[in-house]
Fold each of these.
Amino acid sequence: MFKTDAIKYFGNLTKLAEAAGVKLPSASAWGDLIPERRAARLDRVTNGALRYDPVLYQRHNDTRG
């Protein structure tokens, strides 16, 4: 799940951080890809409007080494 998509859904980073269950500085430190556990949580709290895709994370991990 990409951070930009989640920000668009929630309207701003503060609301995204709250929905993800993290403090704003933590969400600010995320890269383009939301951490996997948080993406799974966001999938649940948005009833699938934001989709957690395990394949995306597997590909990301494969390219890292």
Amino acid sequence: MLTLGRIANALCSFIYIALAVRALGLSDFGLLILIHSLASTSSVLSRMQSWQTLIRFGSESFGNGDTDLLHRVIHFCIRLDTLSAMFAIVFGLVGVQIYGHTAHWSAHVRFLADLYMFVSPLMYSGWANGILRMAGKFHLVPIIDSCAALAKTLGVIIGYVLHLKLGYFLFIWAMTIIIDYGFYIHYALDILRRKFSFQYFRAFRHWRWQLPGMWQFTRAASVNQTLGNISGHVATLLVGNGLGPAEAAVFRVCRQIADGIVTPAQLISPVLYPELVRMRDRQDWRGLKRVTWKMFGVLSGLSVALLLLSAFFGSTIFRFLLHVHVHHTSLYISIMLLAAVFSLLVIPLEPLLIVVGHVKFLMKNRTAVMAVYFPALYVLTRHFGLAGACLSTAACNATILLSQMLGVWFFHDRIGKSSER
């Protein structure tokens, strides 16, 4: 189910991107991408990783039916997401004014971007995502994502047939986000109401409550995940600012093709973290290490096959999507796929370091890498164009992978001796 859902989602994305480019033209499609990236950046910057906090501090009470403690943990996570939502809107509106000025957007484009920022809080399902993972209902995720992707595809087809403009396509993107978020909240609340008699609005009592170490874990996990998730959106914005919206569209589509190719392999990530948490709770340290390295070996072999696939078919996919000829697209896609492969190989390593208590290591690691990556990306993009952007992205992901491999090697003998640092 997970595989079919992700594949269907990737196929829908190829269709609606191809039609959106034909309807809007490459430059206006680039504006659509940049506005969406601004909203995504504000969402990622503001979000707390409440689903990780929920699983770490609530999985045991969820399993043994400790309703009171579980309610308190969920309430804490809901409050985190509420604060994140408010900050997302503020960050988004400020970001539009700053970026719109530097990118020389018209007043009309800025107005559309301002309106779009109000859906940025709904880009993150947070605590609801954690409930689905703990309840073993993660098969609902690809169904939800597929419904949203189908709705977006249908909306884009209508826009293509009727020759509608940027405002309409932003509306379709926004409605897709609302649909996706609504499904997550509905299913999570349904699970909690049936099993634990949960009431959502009680979350806004007792704002000061937290378990020992809960806020520290949330802060460290959030910084690490924010730096990991924000890099793609900021990279698109920097390319757009340095080269223009059309080049930003090319860069984003090359990245999306690469991500689409590795999509089936990424299915491991959503189910791996909860499983490692359960192994940690059982003190099964040998099994935890074995699963991690087995997944790393499988993904390494798969990565070689994916790189060969990109070399032969990358430019063909690009021409289908954008309906334009851009020089060196096979090279760009191959480099971006290499970057995606490096990110793919991080999948089994990062959850291992998180569940054994080395979140601070991940946070410091990503902070250092991103502090170098963003300036390097901008400089290389200005001097070498899209090739510089792609190469700097691949180098960034390779550095993160190498540092996490070193981290696992360094902490390997300590796993099982201390699960909290």
Amino acid sequence: MACNINVESILGQGIFATTSSKKLQAFPSHNYKPNVISCVAIGPTHKVPQLPWKLVFHEKERPLLSNEKFGIYGGKFVPETLISPLTKLDYEFNSALRDPQFQMDLQVALKDYVGRETPLYFAQRLTDYYKSINKGIGPDIYLKREDLNHGGAHKINNAIAQAMLAKRMGCKKVVASTGAGQHGVATAAACAKLSLECTIFMGTLDMERQPSNVLLMNHLGAKVKSVEGSFKDAMSEGIRNWVNDLETSYFLAGAAIGPHPCPTMVREFQSIIGKETRKQAMDKWGGKPHVLVACVGSGSNALGLFHEFIQDEDVRLIGIEAGGTGLDSGKHSATMARGEVGVYHGAMSYLLQDEEGQIIGPHSIGVGLEYPGVSPELSYLKDTERAEFSTVTDEEAIEAYKRLCKLEGIFPALESSHALAFLDKLCSTLKDGEKVIVNLSGRGDKDAEAVFNHTPKHE
């Protein structure tokens, strides 16, 4: 079977884009309909007005989790050489999900190593603050404390599970890419625990902004390799490194992006967040939350919280993107707000791209939100209008960081602060006593210097 995709485009050096239309037909049902195909794209590498690719379909046994595509999004837009390794990974992933011993071992690791379950914390003073500026009326605000996980973020949920899968598959080496460094730290920690060789690729710009996480990765025994650029460039280099050693290495995806099964795996291993949240909400007030809010870079923490509630249409799902210095400034990471459909890093989703179909460099003070694409599943949720998306600027995120520090004694990651900042717009629109849960996806000790540098010295 021939495949004339340019490999460099798929791995991120160029862009394999699709339609210039920002509006796609919404799908009539929010229910997922698993698509049991492997997709090999054969076609042009430039933006075109329609979807012209011929897709070669390989029928196969339906696995337990077979969401290769969410509507038109996702798929396997990869060179022929990667079809077999990805198919094997899909099989091993589903095999592990069916294995009671793997599931038991994972639950033990999540409890004893990661520190789950994480609290659903009632932010009393933050709640009082928003009520005080709205005539005493407002929602009750809860924080899902993923910042209390081992490593300080939600990333370890997925990293420990995939490292266990790599060990189960007999892999000796793990390769990963990281932006803010949280996935790198989580992967390095999981590999240290499981005695796996670990190599982390990180953009030079991100290494300069997150030196503490680089040190942690080194202390945990990982080799940290710099890549010119930012996370999108590190992602490309990580995939390229894996391709060169498919027999013994494992690419540990930290974001719900890339070719199938990577987005489904990351979402599945992060879905513990929403599952715990449902149980905790029932225990605390005997019902479901009214609104869930999470920041969105590529989408792993948002999907981790949202996925459990997708079928509960009375629960609003709101994703908050990085508005940077403003959407009109061009310095942002607002893929849902300003992106168009295209293919990048092996999957179809919304992308930030110019008229020529080339990637537009993203920007955010929250380094972990700097990615020009987004999860295929979130792209689908946008088109079906099951999830809502908004933006928050750098300055608004910094103010939210400071507010939570002063009111609750909790220092959130700047990524999570974007979700917190959206409360400024949300709270006045809700009824008194409605329940809002914000996913506090990480802690902000890594961001203290960045906030200080952006704070006027007289404050």
